[in-house]
């Protein structure tokens, strides 16, 4: 099956070639992928990234853990709470190598989970979230200045501040 799929054949092509149903080939493929990717080996994982993704209103949020050295997704779970990581920590606890570093957003749920289960790990807040938070605060600060200047009717200050901020 793998050698056939390496030839860029569709499930329909393989089913036709093997004279079996599409469902039969799909089931074989699902079993193969589940066996191969269901529980990645965590024994050498020392640097991880934790984040959540939104999968639509039906599924909601999923917590995703990535091996930062290989970029492989090593764990997923529904939700974005600290409890969403319990299964990961239970599996990792059986491994000898501890988690050395964790990159995550500024969400308290993930930070508290890391502090509880990997207290010696270095916690790194990912750059995207730091820059996003900084920009939000900067915009808020500019709006406060704008409102204060409007109250004072300081048209020169408003003009200068608007030009400096690019708004």
Automatic annotation (TrEMBL):
<dbReference type="InterPro" id="IPR002560">
    <property type="entry name" value="Transposase_DDE"/>
</dbReference>
<dbReference type="InterPro" id="IPR047951">
    <property type="entry name" value="Transpos_ISL3"/>
</dbReference>
<feature type="domain" description="Transposase IS204/IS1001/IS1096/IS1165 DDE">
    <location>
        <begin position="48"/>
        <end position="159"/>
    </location>
</feature>
<protein>
    <recommendedName>
        <fullName>Transposase IS204/IS1001/IS1096/IS1165 DDE domain-containing protein</fullName>
    </recommendedName>
</protein>
<dbReference type="Pfam" id="PF01610">
    <property type="entry name" value="DDE_Tnp_ISL3"/>
</dbReference>
């Amino acid at each position: 099956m793998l050698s056939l799929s390496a030839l860029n054949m569709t499930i329909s092509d393989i089913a036709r070639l093997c004279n079996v149903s599409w469902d039969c080939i799909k089931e074989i493929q699902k079993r193969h992928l589940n066996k191969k990717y269901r529980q990645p080996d965590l024994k050498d994982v020392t640097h991880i990234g934790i984040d959540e993704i939104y999968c639509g209103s039906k599924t909601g949020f999923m917590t995703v853990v990535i091996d930062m050295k290989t970029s492989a997704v090593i764990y997923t779970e529904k939700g974005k709470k600290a409890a969403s990581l319990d299964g990961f920590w239970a599996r990792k606890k059986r491994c000898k190598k501890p988690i050395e570093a964790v990159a995550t957003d500024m969400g308290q749920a993930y930070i508290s989970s890391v502090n509880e289960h990997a207290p010696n790990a270095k916690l790194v807040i990912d750059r995207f979230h730091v820059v996003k938070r900084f920009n939000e605060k900067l915009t808020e600060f500019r709006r406060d200045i704008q409102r204060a200047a409007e109250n004072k009717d300081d048209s020169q200050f408003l003009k200068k501040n608007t030009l400096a901020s690019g708004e």
